[in-house]
């Protein structure tokens, strides 16, 4: 570095001399200079030293730049943004409106009217059923058309017939179970049969037993 500074100072001094005198001295002009071998050797050494110092300077600048880059990379916080959100976070991030709502076309389970239809006539039952259906559906009676009223009445009649069929089947099943249980009750047990026998039948049985014993003795004695 000092050698480079000296050369730069020498060049500046030559420029100042040229500016003052208007020309360079004879020793600095191009031409046949009388330079000894020692001076030429010094010039070669100076140029070689300049080249080496320049290379060292460039290498030093590169090392400083690399160190500064490493320091900057270490100081910068690592903020890695996740590409994919995990399953629980994704479920929490779902908007409320994404929850599946029941479609309008999906039929709701039918609820039978709570009005008792046993003691009502067919027309009264249909009217009561229509009133109940209106209340459950939130429809006012004045907003129903004639076709809707007829459909509701037909529906009430159909439900009434189905209910009557179910009651009839239930009654038939009860009768069948009673008929199957009655024969079992009518079959008497052996003890009951003995109790039901009269005294005369008991005497006849005793006589038969005695006769059988006599015949047996006669056969054995023969």
TrEMBL record:
This is Uncharacterized protein. One of its GO terms (cellular component) is ciliary base. InterPro entries: CFAP36. Residues 59-69, 80-94, 167-185, 197-222 have a biased composition (Basic and acidic residues). It comes from the Eukaryota. Residues 59-134, 167-222 are annotated as: Disordered.
């Amino acid at each position: 570095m000092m050698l480079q500074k000296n050369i730069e100072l020498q060049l500046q001094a030559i420029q100042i001399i040229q500016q003052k005198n208007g020309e360079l001295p004879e020793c600095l002009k191009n031409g046949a200079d009388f330079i000894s071998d020692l001076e030429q050797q010094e010039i070669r050494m100076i140029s070689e030293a300049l080249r080496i110092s320049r290379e060292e300077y460039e290498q030093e600048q590169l090392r400083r730049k690399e160190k500064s880059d490493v320091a900057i990379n270490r100081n910068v916080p690592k903020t890695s943004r996740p590409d994919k959100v995990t399953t629980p976070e994704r479920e929490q991030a779902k908007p409320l409106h994404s929850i599946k709502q029941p479609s309008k076309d999906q039929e709701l389970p039918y609820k039978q009217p709570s009005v008792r239809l046993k003691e009502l006539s067919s027309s009264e039952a249909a009217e009561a059923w229509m009133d109940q259906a209106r209340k459950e559906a939130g429809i006012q009676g004045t907003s129903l058309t004639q076709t809707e009223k007829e459909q509701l009445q037909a529906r009430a009649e159909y439900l009434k017939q189905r209910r009557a069929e179910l009651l009839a089947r239930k009654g038939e099943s009860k009768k069948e179970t009673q008929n199957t249980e009655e024969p079992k009750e009518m079959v008497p047990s052996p003890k009951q049969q003995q109790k039901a026998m009269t005294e005369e039948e008991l005497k006849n049985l005793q006589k038969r037993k005695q006769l059988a014993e006599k015949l047996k003795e006669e056969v054995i004695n023969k």
